[in-house]
Amino acid sequence: MRLIPQNPDIHAYLASDEAIDHWHPLVQETADALWSATGDAYSYAEVAFTFVRDTIPHSADSGDARVTWKASEVLSTRTGICYAKSHALAALLRAQGIPAGLCYQRLTDDDGTNPAVHGLVALRLPGSARWSRVDARGNKPGVDARFDLDEERLAFPVRPELGEVDYPELYAAPHPATLTALRESADRRELWRRLPTAL
User: Fold this and answer.
1) CATH number of the domain that residue 93 is part of
2) How many whole angstroms from its chain centre is CA 163?
3) pTM given for the model
């Protein structure tokens, strides 16, 4: 899908902030270690995606009650929901000079109830004019997200007939609704009650 950057300045998608804290030593060390195994931007982006998808379990899948939101915290605790894992992937990409932003979907249960906002990352390789969405949520039975910059392989393709939506906005920083839910929840049970249902 065609994404609409909220900030026309590409440098906004390389910046560090409180959630995407790629200045943090742990983020830098992780990024350097992953880069040393690759050596070019495409390979690095794929390895960083796979690292976040496969080595940091989604807390709902693992049963972990902790709520993380800073990229460095996600990497150190090895847990997080989709928003937190997206912060970690964006930080790893930005740490190696690859512009990355946050984008979102509105998803529901199979009967169209219980809407919730789901978080993704979009990246733009150096020299490319196109943003590509990837979903590092973590695979499980029925979910098979892959790194593919030509054809999206997301965890949850939207079902418009159920009211699901791909939001076209590309954010340089986490959406306030998602960040507030993460920061103000004591545990995952509380977080589940606070998840935004739309943007």
Assistant:
1) 3.10.620
2) 22
3) 0.97
